[in-house]
Each structure stands twice: as structure tokens, then as C-alpha cells.
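Dissemination and training. As part of the outreach component of the grant, students in the summer workshop were shown how a complex can be specified as a set of sequence lines and then modelled as a single object. The example used during the hands-on session is reproduced here so that future cohorts can follow it. Participants entered these lines:
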Amino acid sequence: MMFPLYINAASSSDALTRSAAELIPAPDMRRRMSRVVKMGVCTAMECLSQLPEGEVPDAIITATGLGCLADSEKFLRNVIENDEQLLNPTPFIQSTFNTVGGAVALLSGNHCYNMTYVQRGRSFGCALIDAAVRVRLDGARNVLVGAFDETTPAQHRIMERMGAWRGAEDGEGSHFFAVSPEQREGTLARLTLAEFADPGETAAQVLERLGPDENRTVIAEESGGYHTCAARSLYEGVEKIRAGAQRVSVYSRYRDDSPLVMLLECI
Amino acid sequence: MRIAVTGIGVVSAAGNSAGELLASIRSGCSGVGKPALLDTVHDFPVGEVRLSNDGLKSLLGLDSRRTVSRTALLGMFAARQALEDAPLFSGPPHRTGLISGTSVGGMDLTEEFFREFIRDDSSGRLRNAAGHDCGYSTMKIAGYCGIGGFSTTISTACSSAANAVMFGAQLIRAGVLDRAVVGGTDALSRFTLNGFKSLMILDGSPCRPFDASRTGLNLGEGAGYIVLQREDTLETEPYCLLSGYANANDAFHQTASSAEGTGAWLAMKGALEMAGLAPEEIGYVNAHGTGTPNNDASEAAALCRLFGDRLPPFSSTKPFTGHTLAAAGGIEAVLAVLSVDKGIIYQNLNFKTPMEESAAIPNTEYSEGNDIRHVLSNSFGFGGNNSTLIFSAYA
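and obtained this result:
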């Protein structure tokens, strides 16, 4: 009902083809950005640059598990160490979770719907569901949906103490997609489903539930390194389709959160 | 498909329930004052909830030794009220969801943790860090209230709760849920108090929205939730309908609003279009009205542009509660619902002199029993995030 959606562009912070200076032309704005905000904004702007002229988003939806950690830590550290005196506001401003979404709107002069989901390992799935809802209920034609998360030494250490890195590796990244209700000339893949599996359901169990399929490529991420790793898994799935796969089943889970199951088909 | 409001719940500096909050407003009693519970060197007026964490845990039936962030405690308290206020629902648990907005998350506990952690990275109680993220409080609220359906957290600064109301309605329209508890929660923290101070938008006196002498906001805390329900599942008359909503981006600056209030105007216009209403049908506007020079001028410009010379009575209720950040849209949704239900036009405290920038003058007298069919509520956040909700009389 809510799907399929058509993925017309996809970008990864690991595979940017343009420089930060090209993607974020205003030098002051670029300089003030923290590493994660720059990563998220560059990836989002790269995705937008893949779309044909005139195809601008009518919804911008972002997801993050921990948001702009480095800025939060920086401001918090300053509050504690300076006894709440003489504080620089920049890290505080940059620490809000919708900073990336807001910056993309600012850079593209776009007044459209702009939302940010912060729900641990389900964040990206929620963003995808909102994208589907905007398309189906509100007639959105072009939704920019993506995610970003960073690792910092403090966060890594804290999670190490919590046992998070036994059986998983810390990671970070940003991935963005442009989705539409119908196929277009540049469509990369058809997203026929995105839904949460039950927490605790393994990739094997999900694949069995989906039924046998010899022509299916599987991406199974059972120990994702950051809350929004499902966006990276989707990107990997799109890359498989681009490389010739007919169908891709993607399962992506962060720790013990609900896994996200996404099905892709070639065009 | 129409979406009804069947329950309300709120905890704020001016009252620990909808009834108490309304009583404070009726008697003109603001909850803003010097911080008593928050451990800070500053003495800016704040809207602090008159319940300690132990007090909240006691009211919630939780062991005082349990580590729970204040944001989660406030949220649990208000969401429980909203569900208890709503009529019994016979649908299955997985058809009631929770959409909650927060910006502070567990930062109150993270501050405790970090104080020790930065001296020695093996110190600090891990339990204080485990609930740092925004999603944590939503999970606690859902677990405590037995909400089994789709739940998620929205964090778009000061428009979070309004956006949560919107997304809950969307999920009902999309057939994912029959009922949604929607709103937001934020606790005071040194992080946010100092953050707003560093931006120099805190007022050292009680805030004066839309007044020429306004110099900033008073930070507040609290939680506000309403229960949305699909009309065809109703068994009793609801408070009102949620008839329209919209979110738009100002795309002007990261924190400041454009002088013309473009994002605000687009959000209000979009909500009216969805509700199928002409501007003059609005009986009362609950403004975002933080009391900052920038917001109030920008919002007033948008109001005047939208309503022309038919500006309805409007006010900011933030002088009563403080600016509760991500909870504001939820607390103010509760007030908007009561406005439709009882014909209330709220007063804007501390107003004396109209702004130079605008002819817009807020309402300064409380009244009830007015013929109000439609109420519009604004919530605007950093990142140019502008949201408007419209509540309408049930007929």
C-alpha cells in the first residue's frame, strides 16, 4: 500500500564525487559546520545533485541515532569546565538534531516539509515510512530521505564500557536517497518494501519468512556499527542493483533494535 | 477521515495537570520563577515543574533508586494523564502508538555522567549515560503506559511536539494506527539553559511576548500529550477535531527567523488549506511567542500577512509555562484543545507596549464561553522548522 517507491538517486559519505566546497559553497557556513554536519550535508547535497534540473524535493526527512555528538560534547564540556561562564554558542546551535535537515533547506532555498527522526536503531526506518506516507497521503513527488551518525572518542569509550563492541565494530556514515512515487528516466531501483521485523528476529528467520528466491541477492547486516546503519545497507542494496542484481533483500540491525527489512528490484 | 482528540495530559511550571494549569491561567498566576531544583549558577527566571524527580517517581509508582531521566519522568506523567483522560479503547494494543518530541532527551543525567567522565574515562555511572538519546524517553513512556503500537521520536527543536502530533495523525490516516498518543517532553538542564544564555536570548525578567521591551525567553520544562483517535472508532464525544496541520521551512538562517516570517506564514497557510478554512474562521491563535525580539517580530509579520485586518485574538501562553522547547507544541496543543472545548481566549501576560515592528497587539484578558470554532497553534524551532496545528469544534 505504502510501497513501492522509486529510488532515483543515492549517495554515500564514503563515495562523494564532489568536494565540500562545491557542495556547500558558502565558506562561512562550511567552516562553522562540525564534521558530522558537514558529512551529512555534503551527502545530502550530492544526492540532490544527481537529480535532473528542476527536480527539487517536496519533503526533506533525516534520521540520526545520536545526532551531532561532537558539538554536544564540546558544549557540555565547556559548561562543566567553565562553570557555566563565557560560552561560545556555535556548538550548542549545531548540536540540534535537525541541523543537517535545516542546512539542506537553507542551501537549496527550499521551504518544504522538513523532519528529523531520532529513535535509535529504528530512526532510518521511521524516516522511510514518513517518506512513503508523504508520497501516498500528501502527493509528494520527490522526497529526500537519509541518515547520518558519527563516532567520537568519548562515545566509543562509553559504549565500549557498555559492551557494545563485543561482536560489532563502531562506525559512522551518511547516506541519502531521492524517492518518488513513479519510475523515471534515471530511476536506480524499485523499493518494494520497507518494514520493521520483530526485535530478535535474525536475518535467516526473515529470509525464510519471505520465502525462497534463487534470483535474490542478500545483504544481511546483523551487527551494524551505528544506529542508522540501515541507510548504508540500503545504499549497498542499490549498488548491487546497479551492478546487475535482479532482486536484493536487505536486512539491517543495530544491536538489539528492530531490524529493518527492505526489498529492492531492478528496473 | 476525521481525527478526533479524546484525551489530554500536561505537567508544567504552572500546573501538574490540565485542571491545575487552567486554574493558574484563570487566576493569572505564572509558574515562572527562580530555579529551585536545577543545579545552576544562574538565576534567570525559568518555568520549573514543582515536582522533584523523587516526587515524580513516587507519583508514578517507581522506586526512587531507579535511574530515570527527568525528561522521561515528565513524559510518563503527562502521557499517563492523557490516556487516563481518554475513554476506554477496545482496539488491540498494537493499534495505539506513541509519537513523542524531545530535544533535551536524557541530558540531565548525561551532565551528571560527563562531570566525572571528563576527569577519568573509567568513571561516571553508566546508567546515567544509557538514556542520553532522544529515543530513550519515548521507549520509557511507551513501556510505562502500555502503548504497544508504532512509536517513534521526532527532534526538530522547539517544533518537535507539534510535529509529533502531525505524524501521529498521518499514521492514523495511513491506516498504521487507530489511536496515537502525541506530544512532547523536555526537562530543564544546564546544557539548554547555558545554550540559550550563550545565544543571549534569555530574559533576566519574566518574558514579555510581543511587547516592545521584550528581550528574550524564559526557559521552561514540562510535558504535554493529547490522544488522537480515528473518528469511526469513537464511542463518546471527543474534545474536538484535529482538522489541519502543516510544516514548512523558513530556509533563512539556522536560528533566526526571517523578518517576514515566511516559514511561519507557509505553515499557517498550509494548515488552513488542509482544514479547508479561510483565515477569518480562526477564533483564537496560540502563538509561539517566545518573547525574543526576533521570533515575535517575525511571527507577528506572518500573522498580519495571513490575516490582514481580520487578525483574531492571539496570545502567547509562554509567560505562564516558560518556553518548554520540544514540549511546547504538546503543552500548547492541550491549551488549544481546551480553548475549542470551553471557548477560552487566553491572555498574554506582561504585555504593555506594542512593538514598533508590527500593529499586532495580543489579547491581555482571559475569557471563557466565547464562540470559538477553530483554534490555530504555532510552534517554531531552530533550523527554520515551522509547524502549525488547527483544532476545530466537533460537529
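The longest strand of chain B covers residues 3-12. Students were then asked to discuss how this feature might be tested experimentally.
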